[in-house]
Q: What sequence folds into this?
């Protein structure tokens, strides 16, 4: 103990050095955008690699639950294909021409659930074509929007982040509102700006509106859980989210081929 | 003692003013700029405790950063420079060490000694500053060239100043 104290006294300037240099780097990162983005990206790469190793073990433990969710999704999709096939009849569809959206798989390597500003990290990045503002969807419904990507990883703002906003609609009557999250339970989000004259009942499903360039129309978000009539002309609606973020591992990133065009057009209209 | 302190404090402010008002407007060949203010760390007395060197380096860099709007960049460089100074001094120490009542100047220890001491510390400072500024190693050799050329420029300005202004 005495030796340690002596050592500390002799080398206390090293501590001062580390402290001051750390302060310089913190200032550097906080006040210079370029350096900040590089530090964050480097951190994402390192943390992503680390989390991926840990997540592997967690995923193995929960494989049963994950499998069940994926099987349910498969069944739903099979039924849908069957229904669509019957509608199509003998018409031949060229797959390369179908759709403006392209889905590709990714896995969540890290997520936070209990903060106000939660983030997910997925194991696909710029090199695999993930870019900012792409939508992310899981087997149980939409998950979030890509915030930023580095070489091999990307950060996603999930629905359960207080900065999250998305235009959604009531599936049965197409009334459009804004989905956000108030920081309470990770299973419940709120839906605002649905007018009083809209017919909303508990259990109605909520889907994406397709108004933004992020998600195609009609992706499942959740079900109406509670409808409140507050002052003003709008309902406050609680939505039971389809996605259980606790059990989420496999997701799809959605690339909208026309996104740039749509964003450009909208930007030019604003001017 | 008080006089020594006062002289150092005045030097601190004068160097910052000269750097900000005059030298920061000098750009040779597009991107060469003498960082003359590092002279402050070079001229601090031999007996300065290490922690004080570090704090002085921090304040010096911070003041410069405030003027150039690059919070943290020059601070990181000056703190490292202050940290390395005792080692560089002991590297260049004469056989019987540095005598009391002397200062790290040409007048006491000669041009060769001062040039070596100044070049190494300035090089370290510029190395950190320039690499932190670009913040990646993509243009490694371009940056290294800038470091070397700027070190030459800064140290020649510093050595010249020793003959004209800071003689004793």
A:
């Amino acid at each position: 103990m005495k030796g340690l104290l002596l050592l500390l006294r002799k080398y206390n300037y090293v501590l001062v050095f580390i402290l001051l240099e750390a302060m310089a780097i913190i200032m550097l990162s906080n006040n210079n955008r370029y350096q900040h983005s590089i530090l964050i990206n480097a951190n994402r790469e390192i943390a992503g690699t680390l989390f991926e190793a840990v997540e592997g073990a967690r995923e193995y433990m929960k494989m049963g639950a994950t499998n069940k969710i994926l099987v349910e999704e498969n069944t739903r999709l099979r039924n849908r294909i069957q229904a669509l096939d019957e509608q199509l009849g003998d018409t031949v569809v060229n797959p390369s021409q179908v759709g403006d959206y392209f889905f590709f798989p990714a896995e969540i390597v890290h997520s936070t659930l209990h903060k106000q500003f939660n983030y997910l990290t997925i194991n696909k990045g710029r090199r695999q074509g993930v870019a900012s503002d792409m939508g992310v969807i899981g087997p149980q419904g939409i998950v979030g929007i890509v915030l930023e990507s580095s070489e091999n990883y990307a950060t996603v703002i999930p629905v359960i982040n207080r900065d999250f906003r998305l235009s959604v609609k009531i599936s049965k009557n197409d009334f459009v509102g804004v989905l956000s999250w108030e920081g309470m339970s990770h299973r419940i989000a709120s839906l605002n700006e649905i007018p009083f004259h809209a017919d909303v009942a508990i259990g109605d499903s909520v889907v994406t509106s397709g108004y933004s360039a992020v998600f195609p129309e009609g992706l499942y978000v959740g079900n109406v859980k509670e409808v409140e009539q507050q002052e003003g002309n709008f309902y406050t609606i609680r939505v039971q989210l389809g996605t259980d973020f606790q059990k989420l591992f496999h997701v799809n990133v959605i690339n909208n081929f026309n996104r740039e065009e749509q964003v450009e057009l909208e930007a030019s209209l604003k001017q | 003692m008080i006089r020594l302190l006062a002289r150092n404090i005045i030097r601190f402010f004068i160097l910052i003013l000269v750097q900000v008002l005059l030298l920061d407007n000098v750009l040779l060949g597009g991107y060469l700029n003498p960082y003359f203010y590092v002279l402050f760390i070079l001229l601090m007395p031999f007996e300065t405790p290490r922690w004080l060197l570090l704090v002085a380096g921090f304040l010096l860099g911070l003041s410069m950063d405030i003027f150039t709007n690059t919070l943290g960049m020059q601070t990181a460089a000056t703190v490292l420079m202050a940290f390395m100074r005792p080692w560089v001094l002991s590297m260049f120490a004469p056989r019987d060490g540095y005598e009391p009542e002397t200062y790290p100047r040409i007048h006491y220890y000669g041009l060769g000694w001062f040039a070596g001491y100044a070049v190494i510390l300035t090089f370290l400072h510029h190395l950190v500053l320039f690499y932190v500024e670009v913040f990646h190693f993509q243009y490694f050799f371009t940056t290294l060239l800038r470091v070397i050329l700027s070190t030459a420029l800064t140290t020649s300005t510093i050595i010249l100043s020793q003959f004209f202004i800071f003689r004793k």
User: Anything to note?
Assistant: Chain B has a mean pLDDT of 87. Chain B touches chain A through 22 residues (CB under 8 Å).
